[in-house]
Amino acid sequence: MILDLNFEEICQYVENMGEQKYRAKQLFEALTLGKTLEEISNLPKSFKEKIEKDYPKYEEATRLVSKDGTQKVALRFSDGSIVESVLLKYKYGYTVCVSTQVGCRMGCKFCASTLNGLQRNLSAGEILAQIIFFNKLLGGTLKERKITNVVLMGCGEPLDNYDNVTKFLKLVSSADGLNISQRNISLSTCGLVPNIKKLADDGFSVTLTISLHAPNDSLRKTIMPIANAYKIEDVLKACDYYFDKTGRRVCFEYSLISGVNDNDQQINELAKILKGRSCHVNLIPLNSVKEKNLLGTARKKAYVIAGKLEALGISATVRRTMGEDIEGACGQLRNKVEAKHD
Ligand code: SAH
Fold first, then answer.
1. Helix 264-274 vs helix 299-311: angle between axes, to the nearest 10 degrees?
2. Ligand 1 centroid to 330 CA: how many Å?
3. Does the reported pTM lie above 0.90?
4. Percentage, residues of the chain above pLDDT 70
5. Ligand 1 atom 7: residue of nearest CA
6. How far is CA 215 from CA 192, 241, 243, 313, in A?
7. How confident is the model at residue 78 (pLDDT cuts 50, 70, 90)?
8. Which helix (H) or strand (E) holds 95?
């Protein structure tokens, strides 16, 4: 699929096809704008026929639009795989939340993405396609891009698909393409320690977000199987390493699960382990998933917890809820669409 290729690789591809060099720019632009082959008017029919087999084919399976401007789409790729992506509207622009895998194998007890395990990794181009889809929908062009920010917080574990995700980061931030700066990209991970370090060593500088969700290993193990592989202490050391290399403040996500990780003692413990770090805590009252028997902490209590953390010297906010009328926690839309087609 040629959406996986960067500009230099597209030049090579066009050359291999025996076409003239200037066609590369036209093709690359059409790909980045999300044009279908039929919509491309400046390429000859003979060339289009040659590239048809390599041209990206993805389609909207379902799209939900919220009153507040949030949109959720389920995209279907050529092999029938479905992934979901979300468009969030903020004062300063639009953020797209992308999926990085079809399903997920991390097995977090509260997450819908993991219900059927991992089907496959998404390629770099398939991750990019989710942004291109919304940019096109909003009438964005290359000069006037509508999407300003990207978060890798959809289905899948980005650092479990390291090569494709990092290729995607290069593609989306490249000056030839959408040119979205790494400063405006957040990568969320459940904490694959070696790959956090690798990300820093490979020179990336995206905002690193860690799904912590518990202040100690014994509790974390009960909700996140990855805690059996990496201790919180080692995750935090990897975060320090990332901060030292990139200078980027690390963000911690803490999904508040009623009666599981939201009592005073646990919040004190959380403040204690994060103390002295340049970081921010994002509190997210759990979005209940039908198949899982867990409830979110009340929003009111979440604000109290944020206040408590602030008082203990830890910067904290409660995640705004957006698109509540079309809500569905991570992976729920995709599961719904798949169930309909089963
Ligand atoms: N695999 C990555 C990205 C996934 S999802 C990660 O673990 O970070 C983005 C965030 O949503 C993660 O913090 C994840 O733990 C959280 N999440 C998943 N299901 C949720 C739910 N039902 N309610 C609230 N947060 C949830």
1. 40
2. 7
3. yes
4. 94
5. 190
6. 17, 20, 20, 16
7. very high
8. strand 93-97
- Torsion sign (Cα): 116, 120, 124, 130: negative
Q: Say what the pLDDT of residue 341 is.
A: 46
Average pLDDT across the chain, whole number: 93
**Of all protein residues, whose CA lies closest to atom 1 belonging to ligand 1?**
157
Residue 233 pLDDT greater than 60, yes or no? yes
Two structure tokens written together for 87:
């468009």
* First-residue to last-residue Cα distance in the chain: 27
DSSP letter for 71, please: E
Nearest to 71 by CA among 138, 168, 144: 138
Measured in Å, residue 45 CA sits from the centre of ligand 1 at 45
The residue whose CA has the least distance to atom 5 of ligand 1 is 153
- Decide if 330 is catalytic: yes
Burial of 39 (0-12, 13-18, 19+ CB in 10 A): exposed
**Ligand 1 atom 9 nearest Cα:** 153
Ligand 1 mutation pick, 226, 282, 284, 290, max ligand atoms within 8 A of CB: 284
Q: What is the arithmetic mean of pLDDT over 104-130? A: 95
The pLDDT value recorded for residue 141 is 87
Residues having CB within 6 Å of any atom of ligand 1:
106, 108, 110-111, 153, 157, 188-190, 211, 253, 255, 284, 286-287, 289, 329-330
Of the residues 84, 126, 157, 253, only one is catalytic, namely 84
Distance CA(302)–CA(135), nearest Å, equals: 34
Phi-psi region of 178 (alpha: psi -120 to 50; beta: other; left: phi over 0): alpha
Query: Is 84 tagged catalytic?
Result: yes
Residue 168 is encoded by which pair of tokens? 């995607």
Position 313 scores a pLDDT of: 96
Q: Considering only residues 69 and 155, tell me which one the structure prediction assigns the higher pLDDT.
A: 155
